[in-house]
Amino acid sequence: MNKPDYEASPAMFRNQPLGFIAAVLLIPVFGVGILILLYWYIKARSVRLTIAGDSIHLSRGILSKEQTDIDIREIRTVLIRQSFWQRIFNVGQVEVFTTGDMPEFSLQGMPDPNFVRDYIRGRINREDEER
């Protein structure tokens, strides 16, 4: 199997640095911070976005799984939303649209979101040139 061009889960610290610091500071308070960080870690690792070649694979869940596969040729729009702090830490929300007004999926806190958009745009443009 070939190495994916992009494979990531939502970032914890880079996505919400103040929340992460607050959780760390709450560790001495009856271990509340550890519970928060553990829940946050499991939630972040239960989502995985993989892009390889002309397909996007999204996997969500730990015990029960929800998996979505999208052919890049079916994608109409990729929307990236980034706050000022998210731009500094190079994370953001990625929304992928195929048809209709609702996104096929929306992922918050993804590392290097502009790479995702540029990669998809490049593959679509390559397909158009080959036709």
From TrEMBL:
Domain YdbS-like PH: 45-120
Keyword terms: Membrane, Transmembrane, Transmembrane helix
Domain of life of the organism encoding this protein: Bacteria
Family annotation (InterPro entries): YdbS-like_PH
Pfam families documented for this protein: bPH_2 (PF03703)
Transmembrane segments: 20-42
Annotated PANTHER family: BLL0215 PROTEIN
UniProt protein name: Membrane-flanked domain protein
Organism this protein belongs to: Ancylobacter novellus (strain ATCC 8093 / DSM 506 / JCM 20403 / CCM 1077 / IAM 12100 / NBRC 12443 / NCIMB 10456) (Starkeya novella)
